[in-house]
Amino acid sequence: MIIVTGATGQLGRQIVESLLTRMPAHRVGVSVRDPRKAQGFADRGVRVRQGDFTDTAGLAHAFEGASQVLIVSVDKMGEAAVRDHRAAIDGAVEAGARRILYTSHQGAGSASHFQPCRDHAATEEALRASGVPFTSLRNGFYAATAVQYLGNAVESGQITLPADGPVSWTAHADLADAAAAILADEGRFDGPTPPLTAAQALTFADIAGIASDVTGRVITRTTGPDDEFREHLIDRGVPAERANQLLGVFTAARAGEFAAVDPTLATLLGREPTALATVLREQLPTRR
Q1: Considering the entire predicted model, what is its pTM?
Q2: Which of 132, 174, 211, 285 has an alpha carbon within 20 to 30 A of 121's alpha carbon?
């Protein structure tokens, strides 16, 4: 049985949906904090069990009978994230899983300027130490994040952000299909995968141009100081530590940490990955 954690989240849900196109529902299980939110999967024959990364013993029950466990990384940063991931790894080991998969990030490394990439690197070290074969999915940066950074740019005609660098913005749906393909073909990758990315790396100047074409509204990209971006976040109620971490996206991008593009995702999908223009066309209002 393949167990997927975080199956009520944006990525986890799409991974399960993709798996269900590849195998019978009785071969798929999910571990979720609130089983009621996964009732739709249960109704289709997926095994649903409660699992919380703060409860290793409970995770062992949630993972019971697993041949593979896919740990979807948590929406936390720093030691809290690594602690949760270690608990999930321990639960998978205790349940006897023969392979553990983990949704990591391109550019994962202990010296990254972006806190989550340092967290992913620490989690990968925990996977190596577990003694169980593992696959670390080096996912490209979510394209949905680029949409969030655009904010109200369509209405204002302007996007002001710190200086950046090229980023391989990649669609959730493509990464979900890739994860499902790797789960269905167990052992295809040992350790970290190549970067699973879209075909282009784009700056926010590029994105402003694409968004202008998609929406019919001229959008100008301007560069603001790092400190101004940080203070703007704090003024909006973002804790200072998290504001520093979010600024790390731009610091890391300037260092080229997210610039790599690789054909592996296209190979897994059997097609070209979704272009950012397609994502923007689906999610941004138009002014035509």
Answers
A1: 0.94
A2: 174
